[in-house]
Each structure stands twice: as structure tokens, then as C-alpha cells.
Amino acid sequence: SSDVGELCAERGEGRIEFSGTGLEPGSEVQIDNEELGPITLVVDDDGTLDTAGAVGVVALFAGTEFTFTVTATDGRGDPLAGELTVST
Fold first, then answer.
1. Which long-range contacts (CB under 8 A, 24 or more apart) does 54-62 make?
2. Could you tell me the pTM of the whole model?
3. How far apart are the C-alpha atoms of 19 and 30, rounded to whole Å?
4. What's the pLDDT band for 79 if we cut at 50, 70, 90?
5. CA 60 to each of CA 29, 37, 63: distance values in angstroms, whole numbers, following the listed order
């Protein structure tokens, strides 16, 4: 996170859900995981990333910890990058 934008990941019902606020509208969020592969999501016009960016098939790996490498751009145009870990 930055003082402008933030990305989050949490466990949903059978999936991992990504959300975010304060991101640059129209920019792409890159999410990558070795087992699940890379996905690209586009930030909404209001600077949010909603749970339409959910990654499925996590139910197949119940009781597992997933680490995602995430890159995005905050509302000032500055890069956000890091790892998010979620336990299923």
C-alpha cells in the first residue's frame, strides 16, 4: 500500500478475492502466482479494483498458503509492488 492506494487479497468461498482503492483508473493490476499463473485486471473508473477479480479453483487447494506477486499504479501514478499471502 501507499498513502494513496492499497491492494488487498482475502479468502472467499472457494476463491481468493483481490480488491483495491486509490488506484489509477484504467491502469492494469498484474497478479502472478506459480501454481495459478498470471492474471491482469483493469482498475475501475473510480480507482477501485472489485471482487470481479476473483481467482477460482482455490477450493482444489484448501489448506494451502498462496503467495502472489502484485504490481499496480496508485492514484498519483506511482508504482505499487509487493507480495500478498493468503491461506485457504
1. 54/12, 54/15, 54/16, 54/17, 54/18, 55/15, 55/16, 55/17, 55/18, 55/31, 56/14, 56/15, 57/15, 58/11, 58/14, 58/15, 58/16, 58/88, 59/14, 59/15, 59/88, 61/35, 61/88, 62/88
2. 0.73
3. 13
4. confident
5. 25, 15, 9
Strand-pair partners of 73: 79
In a 13 Å sphere around the CA of 42, the CA atoms on its Cβ side amount to 3
**Residue closest to 87 by CA, chosen among 61, 56, 66:** 66
Per-residue pLDDT tens digits for 30-74: 888 887 788 888 888 898 886 565 555 555 556 778 888 888 887
More reliable by pLDDT, 83 or 88: 83
Query: What average pLDDT does the segment 2-18 reach?
Result: 75
